[in-house]
Amino acid sequence: GLDSIGMAPAEPNVEVSEAFGADRNEMKVELGLGAYRTEDLQPYVLNVVKKAEKLMLERGENKEYLPIEGLGAFNKATAELLFGADNAVIQQQRVATVQGISGTGSLRLAAALIHSHFPTSQILISSPTWGNHKNILNDAGVAWSEYRYYDPLTVALDFQGMISDIKAAPEGCFVLLHGCAHNPTGIDPTPAQWQIIADVIEEKKHIPLFDVVYQGYASGSVEADASSVRLFAARGMELLVAQSYSKNMGLYAERIGAINVVCSSPDSAQRVKSQLKRLARGMYSNPPVHGARIVTNIVGNSDLFSEWEEELRMMAGRIKSVRKKLYECLSAKDKSGKDWSFFVKHIGMYSYAGLNEAQRERMRKKWHVYMTKDGRMALTGVSQAKCEYLADAFIDSYHN
Ligand code: PMP
To answer: Which residue range or ranges hold the Aminotransferase class I/classII large domain (predicted)?
Structure first.
């Protein structure tokens, strides 16, 4: 009976936030976060989101079901934001876009599509990657293997390792790539490296699946953060792109995102879209409307869009300024000559600091600084005011 069901493993992030919550020390720092925080370390609702919601109330829109593929105006707006409205893939109607349950649900749809149409294919994922990628792929029955990505010695990209692992895989794999602001490392390929990655993927007839969660939130520019995806699209390659508005619009709990599949012809795109809808129907019938309307109002209105870009620059700018301050404190205080510059080289809200388990334990026990077990740090949990203290904690824990 049901009594035979055992306990599922605990979600690692939950342990961190519980331990942080129970810590009564006032100097404590939470680096296990999955969300943006203001300089006062409080949650943030974008002004532009409040404006869009006000518009929605005024219009008195109803709550009837959306079509299976989601809100049509949202699907158009989200694909245009990703690729650029004048992109050939849009102009030629080669993109199948279906609204998804945020990034996770959109990736789940992509995985379901891979499972049903390429049952023997495997997907290559970076080592490390966002922890949930493995859950999503396992649950969908998609086999995965890892390519090298992070080099602990340099705290930077193991580019040679990445390229040779993607080359060594059998032809026709899927390759999961983080569009920008790699989670958990904060390490992205350079534009020149992206070209080489695209060369190898093309040569091997692999199909990329991009995970794009931080468009605009990494660099502050929606164009710059989409450049990896656009580079692949410009080559005429087939590709899949999952999008999320959790971070870049702060719509975490609205669960709004999309899966975009770039096909070789409009006809192929229509067939793919019909299959995505078929899969969505069986999983959740049709997606929620509230977040879709918010995004459509912002992306589709030039005034709100420019205001959103301003708020993106503000959020990305705060993270960058914390990175800079932390690096300055570390270099001023650490007399050992250790190079802490990876903090300013990494991009987005996460960084891997290359700490081992004992060092992380010391950060937690002695300094009340909490990070996930894999050593990922969310810089959104840091303010200018905390940088001095955090630098002391790092130096003490690193050298002892
Ligand atoms: N992919 C990556 C790399 C992420 O960091 C996240 C959010 N932490 C997601 C996907 C999905 O988030 P959501 O389902 O909230 O859009």
So the answer is: 28-394
Report residues of the chain scoring pLDDT below 70.
none
244, 259, 295: residue to mutate for ligand 1 pocket, most atoms within 8 A of CB = 244
Active site residue 247: yes
The per-residue pLDDT for range 222-250, each reduced to its tens digit, is 999 999 999 999 999 999 999 999 999 99
Which residues sit with their C-beta closer than 6 Å to ligand 1?
34, 102-104, 130, 178, 183, 211, 213, 244, 246, 252, 257
pLDDT in tens, 54-111: 999 999 999 999 999 999 999 999 999 999 999 999 999 999 999 999 999 999 999 9
Domain 65-300: assigned CATH number:
3.40.640.10
**CA–CA separation, 132 and 260 (whole Å):** 20
Query: How many whole angstroms separate alpha carbon 302 and alpha carbon 257?
Result: 21
Backbone torsions φ then ψ of 27, nearest 5 degrees: -85, -5
The listed CATH number (3.90.1010.10, 3.40.50.2000, 3.30.1250.10, 3.90.1150.10) that belongs to domain 11-44+315-399: 3.90.1150.10
- Catalytic: which of 28, 51, 204, 247? 247
Closest listed residue to residue 289, CA positions, set 26, 33, 73, 50: 73
Q: Which of 133, 183, 185, 350 gets mutated to test ligand 1 (max ligand atoms within 8 A of its CB)?
A: 183
Nearest-5° Cα angle at 103, 310 to 160: 90
When computed from its CA atoms, the radius of gyration of the chain, rounded to whole angstroms, is 21
